[in-house]
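Project outcomes to date are best conveyed with an example. Our students and postdoctoral researchers have been running inverse folding experiments weekly, and each run begins with a structure described purely in C-alpha cells. The record below, which covers 187 residues, was selected by the lab manager from last quarter's runs and is presented without edits.
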C-alpha cells in the first residue's frame, strides 16, 4: 500500500470516513463473534436440551445436524476473523505513515494518503468476510432450531416462527448491506 503524508480538508474527511467504516465492521464482527461463542457453549446432544417429544423419533435430528451446526459456527468465526483482521490491517496502514526509516503516527496536522484502490479492495474483502460470516451464522442457527424443535419438515407453528424471520430478514439485510457497500465502492 502506498502511503504518503500531506494535508487537506477533503482528504481528512475521507480518511475519517474510511476509519469509521472500518471501526463499524470490527465492532459488528465482535458482536457476532460473541454470539458464536454463546452458541457453541450449549451441548446440543444433551437429551434434555431438545424440546422435541422423545416418543416421535422421526422428528428428532441426527448427530449430523449437530456436526454441521458446529462446522457452520467455525466457518462463521473464521469469516468474521478474516474480515476483522483485514479491517485492522487497513486501519493500521492508514494510521501509520512510513517516511524513510522513521514512522510517523497520523495526527490532526498530518493525514495519510492511501491508495484508494487498495483501500476499496480491502474494505470490499472485509465486507465479503462479514457477509459470509452472517450467512454461515444463519445456517448454524437454522440447525440449532432443528435440534431444539425438530426437523424442518416436522416443525409446527413455533418452528416456522423461529426459522421464518431468520431466513427472510437476514438475507434481506445482507442484500441491502451489499448494495450499500457496492454503492460506496463506486464512489
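After processing, the design step wrote out the following sequence:
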Amino acid at each position: 500500500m502506498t502511503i504518503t503524508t500531506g494535508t487537506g480538508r477533503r482528504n481528512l474527511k475521507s480518511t475519517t470516513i474510511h476509519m469509521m467504516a472500518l471501526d463499524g465492521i470490527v465492532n459488528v464482527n465482535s458482536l457476532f463473534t460473541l454470539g458464536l461463542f454463546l452458541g457453541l457453549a450449549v451441548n446440543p446432544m444433551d437429551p434434555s436440551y431438545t424440546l422435541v417429544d422423545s416418543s416421535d423419533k422421526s422428528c428428532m435430528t441426527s448427530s449430523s445436524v449437530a456436526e454441521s451446526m458446529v462446522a457452520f459456527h467455525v466457518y462463521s468465526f473464521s469469516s468474521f476473523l478474516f474480515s476483522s483482521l483485514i479491517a485492522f490491517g487497513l486501519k493500521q496502514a492508514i494510521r501509520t505513515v512510513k517516511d524513510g526509516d522513521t514512522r510517523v503516527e497520523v495526527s490532526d496536522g498530518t493525514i495519510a494518503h492511501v491508495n484508494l484502490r487498495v483501500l476499496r479492495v480491502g474494505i470490499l474483502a472485509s465486507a465479503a468476510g462479514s457477509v459470509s460470516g452472517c450467512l454461515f451464522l444463519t445456517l448454524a442457527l437454522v440447525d440449532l432450531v432443528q435440534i431444539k424443535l425438530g426437523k424442518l419438515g416436522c416443525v409446527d407453528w413455533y418452528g416456522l416462527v423461529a426459522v421464518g424471520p431468520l431466513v427472510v430478514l437476514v438475507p434481506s439485510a445482507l442484500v441491502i448491506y451489499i448494495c450499500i457497500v457496492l454503492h460506496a465502492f463506486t464512489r
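The longest helix spans residues 116-149. The two ends are 20 Å apart (CA to CA). The training component of this project remains on track.
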